[in-house]
Amino acid sequence: MARLANTLRAPLARATAAAGPRFARLTDAVRTAAPRTARTPHARTLRYTAGAATAGLALAAGAVALAGPWDATGQRTAERDRAVALELPGGADHGGRDVSAGGAGVAPSAPPVLTALGGVAAGAHNGKSPEKDPAKGGKPLAEVLEPLLDAPALSAGHAAAVVDMSTGKRLYGADSGKALTPASTTKIATAVAALSALGPDHRLTTRTALEPDTRELVLVGGGDPTLTAHKSPGEWASLRTLARDTAVALEKRGIRKITLSYDTTLFSGPSLHPIGVNDNLAPVTALTADEGRTDGSDHGPATRVADPAAEAARAFAGFLKDAGVTATPPGPSKATGRAQTLASVSSPPLSDLVERMLSNSDNDIAEALARQTALASGRPGSFAGGAQAIAARLTKLGLPMKGAAFHDGSGLNRDDRLTADLLTSLLAKAADPTRPGLRPVLTGLPVGGFTGTLAERYTDGAAGVVRAKTGTLTGVNTLAGTVVDADGRLLSFAFLASDTTDPEAAQSALDHTASALSACGCG
Q1: Per-residue pLDDT of the chain (523 residues; tens, 9 = 90+)
Q2: What are phi and psi of 209, to 5 degrees?
Q3: Strand partners, 493
Q4: Which is nearest to 192 in space by CA: 351, 414, 405?
Q5: pTM of the model
Q6: Is 469 assigned a catalytic role?
Q7: Quick check: is 498 catalytic?
Q8: Which member of 238, 361, 410, 492 is catalytic?
Q9: Which of 132, 176, 187, 492 is catalytic?
Q10: How far, in Å, CA of 371 to CA of 352, rounded?
């Protein structure tokens, strides 16, 4: 709740500032209408009404913020989770479903909840859109997008695609089959593959196991990248809780001193990404706490510890000591099949991990989920295994894979290649009513002007309407997501630019293109 409130504070302040003059005019009008010579009950009633209206609107804005997050069809994440749990198609009315046989129908979609600040709600144009298709005298979509995509900041090496999510029809394409470096939009592919392989309800478990012969306690990493050692863990699995529960189990056995080891064998291969030591990603290991961060942060670049597993085990030993159990300095080991599990903690559902990964562009979660996808597919839990598993899962889903190449799950590898066609197809697949388990791919996308990596973007237009995954490397700028256009259509889009020289100008050009798409009622 605190994170959501912090995220929405700036946009709500802007909305309040924009609405302030209107409330002032309303109050002035009430004062003008009321006689100044006598404070009649009628005048007081008008003033109270105006005040109540102002307070009511403020309360409503707060209620919307607390009830979120919302997806692009006006469906709350909680409603989506409920639909998935019941194995229903979701809370959207996708049409064409026969419920005459007594099956439970789906709830109709609400119109988009978040609209552009200072703008008009999508579809609320009294039947008139700013721009219509050529048959109705408006501009074709290509005429709107091409001048923006040809901006010098995007260089000559760019590609784009726009797809109508309800029909699957591609509305626009420019080198849409050209494979370019996708940067962090690769995480969309990782999310689809992981959810397809493991399911949205899958949880990652970290446990402690006691070797019956040697009385060695092994902290077994389960590959949970969201395990935390913070005092206030929130919804995430807590290393402190695991230590307390383990201490209770040991004391029941009369054990107050143990030999401590840690097991990271779930993952294999190099732990260091080819980019080397980097503030954007810790060494990838099956045991880590707070992503090896050294500054107390939970997202964004940060200096990382050199050995996250060893650091997590040392922290665990300290928590055991606080709980009354003394442990030796921990070292690496492997739990045997005879080891007895004493305690365990599990991550939130995979759906939550995917949403956090996409919203914050979290590289550590992305690489962990790539390895989990590999293990679920019978491949090694390594960079190579994860890349192979992602490609195989997407191929199995029937997605356009020509030209695609994966080398990691985060998109930090410059040798990754995706096409605009593949990115828009991934988003369309996530919206497929027959695949509700993929819906976190859409609900996890950052919301323009409100959340994640788009919190400070689109504040002057298309706020709340554009939802997209960003991607940035030196010379690479990408953006892929969904947008509700002026006719109320939900569109998926992908814009990729390579060989850019000014990252801020390129980012601005992509944002302007997405904003234009949201304002267009084009064919």
Answers
A1: 444 444 444 444 444 444 444 334 334 433 333 333 333 344 444 444 444 444 444 434 443 343 344 444 444 444 444 444 444 333 333 333 333 333 333 333 333 434 333 333 333 333 333 334 443 445 789 999 999 999 999 988 899 999 999 999 999 999 999 999 999 999 999 999 999 999 999 999 999 999 998 999 999 999 999 999 999 999 999 999 999 999 999 999 999 999 999 999 999 999 999 999 999 999 999 999 999 999 999 999 999 999 999 999 999 999 999 999 999 999 999 999 999 999 999 999 999 999 999 999 999 999 999 999 999 999 999 999 999 999 999 999 999 999 999 999 999 999 999 999 999 999 999 999 999 999 999 999 999 999 999 999 998 778 999 999 999 999 999 999 999 999 899 999 999 999 999 999 999 999 999 999 999 877 6
A2: -135, 140
A3: 162, 481
A4: 351
A5: 0.76
A6: no
A7: no
A8: 361
A9: 187
A10: 17
Gap between the Cα atoms of 279 and 263, Å rounded = 25
| CA distances (Å), origin 168, targets 69, 89, 162, 193 | 26, 18, 10, 20
Write down the catalytic residue from 184, 261, 492, 518: 184
